[in-house]
Amino acid sequence: MKPRHWGLLLFLLVGIVKLPMEHRVYQHLSAEEVLPPRMEVGVMENLGQMGLAASLGGLRSMVASGLYLSAASAWDEKDWGSVDNRMSIATRLDPRYDGYWDNAANFMAYDAASWAREQPEFYTQQLYGHYVKRGIEVIQQGLTYLPKSYRLHQNLGEVFSARPQPPDPKQAGEHFLLAFQNGALPVYERRAAYEFAKLANDPASWKKGYAILQQNYANGNKMPGVISNLKTLEQKLNIPLAQRIPDPMPPQFRR
């Protein structure tokens, strides 16, 4: 056997011996969240040879950054398909960075959807709904990796509150509340209550919103939004008059 063949054989033998050990190390580091989870096969199939090689090593974050910049260039061209594809790969390469999920969703639910509204009437509603739905899907996918990301819950609440036609106050409120519970500013707890107050027939959500605003009011928060939504919920829940807050409805909320 030629020397180079002996070298190749030795290389393969060393690789075979190391494989079980490296697998155990990978499992340990993944469990400790030091390493990102393995990518889905469907995504790996979309990567070129260089991207795939980089994704298996320490260059995943660098490649993800490059794809993000590339997506921004496609954004300039309003090439929404390329934006979505590149951000899909970037999020899988670095799935524990919520900024990529957040931006990927905004590209679809806000930028692409707003662009759709400027298109000929025949396509406007269909395109708008498609891009909003895609933005929601992106954040929901991100939450499978980062269920406690207040940033993603916050963004999903914003999308459900304003972008679908019609909006979805129930989902908006639930995600604003999860955002607050995972570290977002207190305003998002109040915003959850405001969304619950919009619901037409959901006593359980009304009670959650009422409890939140009652606590805010008891702590001295008498902002117009707190008072107006608290009074709305008092009516919906048929709170006895003696237990209602004495403040009048703020002028800007009077009908």
Q: Can you lay out the helices and strands and say which pair or pack?
A:
Elements: H1 3-31, H2 41-45, H3 49-55, H4 60-76, H5 80-93, H6 98-116, H7 121-145, H8 150-162, H9 169-181, H10 187-198, H11 203-218, H12 224-236
Report what the structure shows:
With 255 residues, the protein is mostly helical. It has 12 helices and no strands. The longest helix is centred in the first third of the chain and has 29 residues, at 3-31. The chain is elongated, with a radius of gyration of 25 Å.
Keywords:
255 residues; mainly alpha; Serine Threonine Protein Phosphatase 5, Tetratricopeptide repeat
Extended strand count: 0
* CATH architect. name: Alpha Horseshoe
Radius of gyration: 25 Å
Amount of helix: over 70%
Annotation field: number of helices? 12
Tell me the overall shape: elongated
The CATH homologous superfamily: Tetratricopeptide repeat domain
Note the main sheet: none
N-end to C-end Cα span: 93 Å
Kindly give the count of domains: 1
| Beta-strand content estimate | under 5%
Order of helices and strands: HHHHHHHHHHHH
- Average per-residue pLDDT, rounded, comes to 83
Structural class: mainly alpha
CATH topology (fold) name? Serine Threonine Protein Phosphatase 5, Tetratricopeptide repeat
Compact overview of the structure:
The chain is mostly helical and about 260 residues long.
